[in-house]
Specification:
The chain is an all-alpha fold and 900 residues long. It has 28 helices and two strands. α26 runs parallel beside α28 (861-889) and α27 packs antiparallel against α28 (861-889). The longest helix is centred in the first third of the chain and has 41 residues, at 9-49.
Amino acid sequence: MFDDWFNDLAVILAIVAFLIAIKASNQATELRRRLSSLEAMLNAQRQVQAPPPLPVQEPASTPATSAAEPPPLAPEVEAAPPPLVTEEASPPPLEATASVDAPPSLPAPAPGFEERLGTRWVVWIGGLALALGGFFMVRYSIEAGLVGPGVRVFLGGLFAAALLGAGEWSRRRESISTIQALPIANIPAILTAAGTAVAFATVYAAYALYDFLVPATAFVLLGIVAMGTLAAALLHGPALAGLGVVGAFATPVLVSSGKPDYWALYVYLAIVTAASFGLARIRLWRWLAVTTIFFAVLWIFPGLDTGELQVAPHAFHAIAGFVLAALLVVCGFMFGPDIEDGQIEPVSSSSLGAYLFGAMLIVLSSAHADLSLIAFTVLVAATLFVAWRAEAAVGALGAAAATVFIVFAEWAVRANPDMLVLPGGPMPGITPTAIDSAVTLHLLMAAIFAAGFGLAGFFAQGRSNSAIIPVVWSAAGVITPIAILVALYARIAHLDRSIPFAILAVLLATAFGAATETLTRRESRPGLAISTALFATGTLGALALALTFALEKGWLTIALALMSLGTAWIAMQRPIPFLRWLAAIFAGIVTARVGYDPRIVGDAVGTTPIFNWLLWGYGLPAVSFWAATLFLRRRGDDPPLRMVEAAAILFTALLAFMEVRHLATGGDMISPPSLLEAALQVCVSLAMTIGLERLRLRSHSIVHNVGAIVLTAIAGCISVFGLLFLENPLIWRIDVGGAFFNLLLLGYALPAVLMLLLAYAVVGARGKVYANTIAGAALVFALSYLTLEIRRFYHGPFLTSGETTGAEQYTYSIGWLAFGVVLLGIGIAVNSERARLASAAVIALTILKAFVIDMSTLTGVYRALSFMCLGIVLVAIGWLYQRILFRRQIAPPPAPQTSG
């Protein structure tokens, strides 16, 4: 009816239909074989368990001539002739003998390859060959010019009638036959399917090839053939049903028309859908219902992409299909199949969801025309009603909520109403009145949907014995109003501050809070705990939206973080497991939000150090997450707690790192790094690591443990690659500042102190190698600070300028030697082996410098003083070891023994 198809489409259609029929017939035959086997087993069991017949009483006058009754025959001699008896003896009845003697019959074996080939495949291939033979005969007659077009069409119809008659005759003969049914292919169904396929091809040839029929007549005839095929499927099984549904929905494609009549098309499809759903209901063929829904929804697409969409017939098609599905497909509702209570049936739910999807497409394609919006609203309301009456269709609530959100979200992202009026006047077809009515209608729809979903989700609690049913209702009742409110806010308030929307959010939060408190007072019912948690979640979500609507955009991150804190607090008051996961989910959303824009408010961070938007955007979420961990930890350590702990550590670290970058760059967050930034990053990382090391000893949290290790690794990477190489003032021309209070103190001395504190913090709590590595890094940075500070004394703020003099080299030696002596003194005073080993390392480095560098570069008095001082210090060290350390390690002599 819409496009010219190639002439052999009917042949391809027949082949596809036969393939569907073959599969359906195969399944039906296999089911019949299994049913016959089960019936045979049951009959055999009844026969074996039946009581034996009573013995026949012999006449008293002939005891001598009577023969005793033979025992039952064994299975091996069952076929032997019966023993002879005298005339006076009365044999047992034939039925009783059979019931006693016959062994239980075994289940019929599965058909082998030969049986399948001879009883099934040959018949199927024969039916397909008959259909194709009719097609090829018509083609041959055309090519050879044997008969005219009218005769060809007449012969095709006659052949189709002959096949249909043969199928009906064979069905009647088979139905009155007394031969037991065999697991063979359904010959009557195959013949009838071939006949309907030839009938399709004949009508189509009369229309498309020879122009004997006008489009309307061809359309009616093809529809009659399709409907007749579906009707014949009641007698012949699923083979014809598959062929009929494909032919019925393909008929409008086969008949083309210059001006499509959508009303005629959708009235015809409504009749076809009703017939197909009715057949699926009578025979309980789920595959037929699903196939019909698929083709019916597929027929919504024609005309959606045209400039002049006819909304009324498309809306009629969606509504008619929805009503038919509700009446005939949905289990437990009106005429649908029966189902146990508390079960969500996939076909029942998906059938309603499919037509809701079609109605949504009509709304979007028609640019939210009033009629399409009304039809969509009616279908959503009908979905709530059907799901309320039939629990099998509760799964359609998810589709209803999703389509409602998509409709409002698409309306929200459209151009703003004030942008539709151009300087040259309004756009064609758009006037301020139309825009006002569209907004009013959307607001009315929003109120209906929010109230309908919310109230239904609340009153559905306690109506079902299944836990999943009330949970689905409550989820739809909470999510849908919030989603609609967000869409309206984006459309009307343009994501700016809006006190009216903030008030609406507070009212919604109040409603959800009242529902939460009411449900907590009810007696325990299946799914009530999760539903209560969902309404509590909606309360927090609405409050967060109120903060978002009333405050600036950057406060959204803070509001979501506060939601996590509030959820954790509620989880402590109301021990609902889902609330703990909800707190973790909110923490994840905030983390994703920061990943989208680390500056939180874009370019509006501000230039004031510390007290800028970073402090609020990262500090408040960090405080919220740390407080949430305190609430969550009171009821155990689980994955939600660990997720919130990870978010707390992450936001604390991000706050410190981002504030350091803001301070070092003067607010320009994209400028290159500097020595000041690297020094502050290392110090901050080490300070947070020390805190986490102390905290993990009390909390025993794996998140705190891993967080401390990660921060240590970050500090080590910045220290090695940043301070020692990329930002090293001894390599690059960098202004280090004043004589003492300069970047060297911040970048090398302070990190050395923090590394030393961290090394002592992990002693005994981690491995010895881990602690010694950190202590070694502290020694390296302390020695680096001493060296760079001496360099600053001789060269000024730029350490790369000028040449190194003999006095400077001598000062390095003296400074390193003094540093080693100080370390030794500390090691002796506090009895620290680690300090003494550090002293030995520094002095060894000094000795190496003296013999490698000083001997070759120093001259005169500086070289003499260098070696003299080195010798004196080494002798003094040896004396200290001999007189102090060695003496401490000698055990006191044993006390003299006195004889008693």
